[in-house]
Amino acid sequence: MRYVLRLYILLVIAFIFAPIAVSFVFSFSENRFPTLPLTEFSTIWYQRVLDEPAFADAFRRSLIVAGSTSLLSTFIGFGAAYVDYRYRFFGKKFYVAIGIMPPMIPVLILGVAMLIFLSQVGLSGDLHSVVISHVVLCTPFAMAINRLRLAQMAPNLEAAAWNLGANEWRTMRLVIVPFCLPAILASALITAAISLDEFAIAWFVCGLEDTLPVKVLNLVARQASPSVNAIGSFTFTLSLILVVLAQAALIAGQGRRQKRRTGE
Question: For residue 41, what are the contacts with CB-CB under 8 A and spacing of at least 6?
């Protein structure tokens, strides 16, 4: 039974990543159209992407959006998670449900809603529009990651710090934030990866300040270009690195927690 389960997991992983692997392989083919057998190894499509100013500008905008979204989402998500952990108040379940709702809404509906809202307040059609929209989408992920970390904290840890003379802000700075640091780092990396890959909401609100995924979408709509394989392979690799680093941060934090418990 164990081997059957392992085989099933391998088949699922292969099914999910096979299209990505194919795109990655063909990004190094010199042919304009994907053909088998593969022709000579070439990086011509990567070079064309690097030589195209429009792609470089779109990638720069994507990095700005991802960095801004990562910082804001992590800050808001950590604050929301701490409020859920620390306080008891009426409507708390509703508060948590609202906090984790945006990723459950179809991105097309969320994109249209953000476009209407930002247009009403005069903030649509620019790069900050994408940042605001991505913060709405990514904050629940940061909140969930930090909630899981806070749930592992000893319930009397804050009280012990207060009894030793620390006020609430000092306790936050010297106890809560260091304990949650692995989750905070993981949140920043995960939200950056989500922002880098998101295109549907950005397409609605970006105006002329298109990000790299929006640029790729517009390119695919006009023509079949092998440059898409090169861009997709690069962005997938970058996102994968961010996700792996986030997982490594969580594992490292869990390992330190286990060592402390063993020492105790």
Answer: 28, 29, 30
In DSSP terms, 41 is beta-bridged to 29
Answer yes or no: do 6 and 35 share one domain.
Answer: yes
Within a domain: 22: yes
Task: Work out the angle between the directed axes of helices 127-151 and 107-120 (0-180°, nearest 10).
Answer: 120
CB 148 within 8 A of CB 183: yes
**What pairs with residue 9 in β-bridges?**
none
- Same domain (yes/no): 129, 4: no
Q: How many domains does the chain have?
A: 2
Average pLDDT over the chain, rounded to whole?
Answer: 83
pLDDT by residue (tens digit) across 106-139?
A: 888 998 999 899 888 888 778 889 999 999 999 9
Q: What is the pTM of this model?
A: 0.84
Task: Give yes or no: residues 17 and 58 share one domain.
Answer: no
Tell me: pLDDT of 264 over 60.
no
Contact of 50 with 114, CB cutoff 8 Å: no
Domain, as residue range, for 6: 1-42
pLDDT value at residue 257:
59
Cis amide leading into 182 (omega within 30): no
Which residues lie closer than 8 Å to 86 by C-beta, 6 or more apart? 158
Q: What is the pLDDT of residues 209-236, one digit of tens each?
A: 888 888 887 777 666 667 777 887 888 8
Strand partners, 29: 41
The Cα-based distances of 117 to 81, 120, 124, 125 in angstroms read 26, 5, 8, 12
Residue 48 lies in a domain: no
Q: What is the pLDDT of residue 38?
A: 64
Helices (H), 87-211: 92-99, 107-120, 127-151, 157-163, 168-171, 177-197, 200-205
Write out the two tokens for 255. 């390992």
